[in-house]
Write a structure and sequence with these properties.
three-stranded antiparallel beta sheet; about 20% strand; 3 strands; 3 helices; alpha+beta; globular
Length: about 100
Amino acid sequence: MGTVPYIHKIHYDPDDYFRYSKSSLTNIFNSAGFSKIRIKELGYGPFSASVSVIAPLLKFNTLKAFAYTISIGLDKILHKIKPNHSSIDYKQFPLGHFFYCEK
């Protein structure tokens, strides 16, 4: 059980194995002989992913909290407007992955 950070958009070509994406973690765990592999994307969408990239530049915690609150709200609004649009799917903009597997 664990987590890994991930801040880049998924790049399928035909798959994304270079970074710790869902597909690369699955490949790593399968190659190591793990079973019952479960991987969950963590995050809300493109706005919150963008804020996570610029957050270290923001000096005040209240400003960071405000930026995250606004970005999560925008991601949720965007998802309601276009719920099935792949370019705004939170799974395409993970901030990290939670994984569970058994050996």
